[in-house]
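We modelled the chain as a single entity of 457 amino acids. Its sequence is:
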Amino acid sequence: MFRLLRSGANARSLSLHRRQSVRSFINLTPSQRSNLGGFSKVFNMLAGAYLGGLVICGGSLYWIYSDANERENIPFDISYPNQIEAVKAINKDDVLQSPQYAAKHYRKILQSISEEEPQDNLELDSYDANDKFDFPMIKSKVLLDEKSNKFANFYINIIIRYAKSLLSRNKPESATKILKKIIDNDEIFFNLGNAEQISSAAQLLGKISQSTEVQVAYLMRTIEMLTRAHPSLKIDNQFLIQENCKVTNEFLHTLNSMAFLYAKESTRSGISKSDKNEVLSNSLNIYLSNLKVLTDIQERVSAEKNGSLKKYYPLFDISPLNLMVQIAEIKAHISEVIWAKGFKENAISWGEEVVDLLFNSYNETSRAAPILISTLNNLSTMYAKMNDKVNSERCLRMTQGIEVYELDRRNWHDETLARFSRIIYNRGPLGIIEKALTERYGSAKPIANLEEYDELD
């Protein structure tokens, strides 16, 4: 019992000693507290820098992800590594405008998805294992019946993006084979993917073939698909737009391509005069029909004040700049068709209208300068054939000061995103902080482009 009392007394004595030690540690002298305060400031600075680094790194990575997701809806049906590859691919393709460096990411996604699928779900008959750019595609029935719409649409759109990126790598054979898997499959072509993107892919496939017959066939197929996807698109048997047709960007582009092929057919060797006049008339009628739609929209855009017209044309760019360029382009084609039909003075008049539209504002978009230069060259030739040397030379002089821009000027958002992307791919997320500190306390260095550190596979 005495032992228990003695041990209890010792425990209380030890506890009292510890409390006294803690009090003596807390009750520091002023000089001791000032020394500790210096370390506290350093600790706060380090903590602030650490948290700031986390915010910048996390924020920049999320910014890149959210931008890629807006450009192409990335489903959660795919694995996390594939989501990362999708962000890299879309970012390099659209933001950095380097599709040749996005091709490897697209292929990695498609191959990874194929590996995750059972063999029975894959189209192995059309897969060439010796072609490193090919991949086993999921069967259309599986995409329609077993996969979610988000996954199926994402999968089809990624395949189209991959094919286009292969064209930038100068791989037309591989691109053609991949595009045909989508465009020639009725179940996919008419039921899956983004109708605008599939339309663009179908026309691209026709252009690769360089055959007028094939191009016409794909244009007809595209028009059928677009009118199925959008019942508000209305045309007659002559491809003329009907009343109350809510045009889309690709629909109008498809009709313009059809009119261009009609005009191209008139230059075929051996064509009779009557057939030539017929195809030229068909071309002219389509162009005039499209022009009427665009001028009507332009008038409504000029008159509207509350922005409601955009809701009426959700898939068409109704910006004044786009309308101006499209109207000018169609008028330039009309000038050429009318000249071929023999109405020379009218053709020159249409060409001069194009010059009036674009000459003072061609530098606002990269699309305008090529149209303006082509029209001026055509006018110079027309005037020369009309024995009007003065106007012919005037048109040639006007072309000399026109600069052609390959890309449009970017806004602040796109330019900053592209800058961050190049830094992150080269130096990692902390490279953004490193770049800022280097420019603040040292000499600034140019940001490396993908070509300088990334490799084509």
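As a brief sanity check on the tokenised model: The chain is about 70% helix and 0% strand. Residues 100 and 169 are 5 Å apart (CA to CA).
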